[in-house]
Amino acid sequence: MATDQTKTESVTIAVMGATGAGKSTFINLVSNSKLRVGYGLESCTSEVQVAPPFLLNGKMVTLVDTPGFDDTVKTEAEILRLIADFLAITYEQGRRLNGIIFLHRISDHRMGGVARKNFRLFRKLCGDDTLKNVVIVTNMWADVSQEVGKSRENELISNELFYKSALDKGAHIVRHDNTVASAHQILQEIVGFPPEPLLIQREMADEHKALAQTLVGIDLQTELQRQAAKHREELDGLKEEMAELMLSKDTKHKSELDELVDALSEVRGQLERVEEESRKIREQAESDRVAHEEQMRKLSNAMQTREKELRALEEQAQEQKTRIEEMQVALEAAELKARQEELRRQRLGDDMQASSAVYQEEIARLRKDFERKLEQARADSARVRERHVPPSQAQQQWSKVFAAQRERRGVFGAMSVMLESFWSSGMSR
């Protein structure tokens, strides 16, 4: 029979990193899943995917595949919304992450601005308190020589621009050689971590903040504003350069002008995308604010209704308490009356018992006296017979006297009178 001790412990681990870092490949390798894998520039995993759970060291492990912030299909704001919503919902449902894997390709020649921005957003998502549950996994070692790979690894560990700050705050860094054994070894370390909520989960679920109000949301908005300002500056520069070339009216500058038009179009497109992304964040923030206010209004109404119900219940409880107290008083009075009645009955019984004893003693005395007098009467009767008194006449006489006395005095009184009369008549003779 299953008991609490035999239940399988559940472990949840999120896998994050840049697009093409090998997140889905890692998950499929270790869990024997079939998540979609993207090898080109276009990301095919732009949604949060949950792999089927598998057993590892007696624990049921679930891996969560997340899209990278540099996704080619969705904007950074959309990716952040996907990840944040998933994390907030699972947190509210009672699921905690035991750890987070952040994959990094050691084959990348350098950790450029996009990669650094991705990791910065990742850190804002996690918060410093959760870094002890973060494992940075470097992979694709087969694509570089050991010397080059080791050099890049040392730079990642020692450079403040890369992973040094996170490692100093408790994060771990390990290698993955693309084998099942290597993946299992990484997971075996993580399954022992105590579950810890991420900063984004505490902000959105516990503090009820809109995504735009969270630390990572604010950081993303700041970054988008910086990008927009940069693109506007580039756009202004290109416009000035175009104006100069157009004024020169020199046909030899036509190719340069065409290049500037293309560059201008590209920068304008980038600016529009950034502004659109910023607009979506603002709209989402406003939508979250309205939704939060509506939720708070409903909560307030529900609390007021609940307060009324509680007051009504308190009044009912008070009425019931009063009735119970009244019933208790009545019960105590009834019990007192019953005890008094019982005592009265006991006293009456004792009195009756005492009277009965006296009565029995009186009867015994009268019986004894009657028997004595009867014996005496028999003796006197014998003497009368000796004097030749007719017995039948005497008996009739005594019967009449006894009947008359019985009517007046009862059986014992008649007997007493008859004996005394008999005794007196005998004595006179």
TrEMBL record:
Keyword Coiled coil set for record: yes
Alphabetic keyword roster: Coiled coil
InterPro entries (alphabetical): GTP-bd (IPR006073), P-loop_NTPase (IPR027417)
GO molecular function: GTP binding
Coiled-coil zones: 221-387
Entry superkingdom: Eukaryota
Residue span, G domain: 12-90
Record-given protein name: G domain-containing protein
